[in-house]
Amino acid sequence: MLVHDRTPARTPTRTRTAIGIAAALMLAGPALAADIDIEGDAGTRLSGTVLETFDAPWAMTFLPDGKALVTEKAGTVWLLDGDGAKLGEIANVPEVQAQGQGGLGDIIVAPDFAETGTVFLSFVERDADDGTLSGAVVERATLVTDVTGGTLENRTRLWEQVPKVTGNGHYGHRLLVSADERLFITSGERQKFSPAQNMSSNLGKIVRLNLDGSVPEDNPFFGNGGIADTVWTLGHRNPLGIDVDADGQLWAHEMGPKGGDELNRIVRSENYGYPEVSEGSHYSGEPIPSHDTDLSFENPALSWNPVISPAGFVIYDGDTFADWQGNGLIGGLSSQALIRVRFEQAPLDNTGAPADDETLETVAAEAERYSWGKRIREVEQGPDGAVYVLEDQAGGRLVRLEPAG
């Protein structure tokens, strides 16, 4: 059954920092004619301005001075100016061999970045003795910037996927720092299915650490020893987006198998069921029991079939899109769209059926879908309140979205 527990509220959300009006004005930039005119499937019109292009961009984060960082899967981190244009590369970035879904991954700033320059970044590492084996790694580093780029100093390894396995998919490795200064890491099951239910492996889990990589003693499985101490939730497939809402509730989405992409309310110690249950089926066509067949597993707040292939996630709290406050924004890869979801309270039990005791559970529903024919890899809220998206693959553009007109 659902455990009603909340992670502490945090300010800011996944990448946003408290910055001044001047920085917001920098990001807003000069008034430009829209490069992309977008109409949502509910009739909302958006104006998109193309700011820059990249080679398979993967993640983006804003800095307190209005600049931003963008990672590319092949191993480059770019420093952008306040208008979203490239200033230069960041040096001393982890070396990667981009294969399949693996390469350089996420990057976020620490809550005290303005004083310390601390960032967290993820990437995929090949095994030193067997290059067919790989796994995600998370490091902490100090970012030092200048007018033409910068460098990462004091790189420290905090976490790695265990074990390294064959294949080049389902790394997850999205990052979030909560208000109580805990580091959450999404870890995919690497297309190996069963590790998601195995507590001796951190594959298919959401992991919670202190910012120095040590393990919080209030983790739900702390005391079991080893990897189990680090686990916050289990039973995940390939979680590629994570954020926290205004009430401090953690949310993450994940790619399902053949059907069954999910948006989940992440509750301490819960098991989300994969591969034992799913709202999709195996690619072979073999069915997977749905969540409502086993109430020991947490059901998704929202699932998609056909899939959207979610990537990147932010819960919007700005003023530019006043009607979107509290809504989730999800990038869609195969769906080639930005998907907006709204959250609401409903008297439901763990199966999604009406609850006898009128217990309220937070559920989600798709509110609108905005498409311009591009795979969307990343979505972030800027300090100016605009929404920034990165298109996937070679030539992927950074686009600033604002209300049309």
Give the key terms:
five-stranded antiparallel β-sheet; mainly beta; Neuraminidase; 25 strands; 405 residues; globular; disordered N terminus; eight-stranded mixed β-sheet; 2 helices
Strand order of the largest sheet: 3-4-5-6-10-9-8-7
Query: Tell me, what is the CATH class?
Result: Mainly Beta
Q: Calculate Rg over CA atoms.
A: 20 Å
> Could you tell me the mean pLDDT?
91
CATH architecture term: 6 Propeller
Domain module count = 1
What's the helix-strand series? HEEEEEEEHEEEEEEEEEEEEEEEEEE
Tell me roughly what share of residues is in helical segments: under 10%
Supply the number of helical segments.
Answer: 2
Considering the protein shown, what is the CATH homologous superfamily?
TolB, C-terminal domain
Number of strands: 25
Shape: globular
First-last Cα distance: 47 Å
Are there runs of 5+ residues with pLDDT below 50, and where? 1-13, 15-33
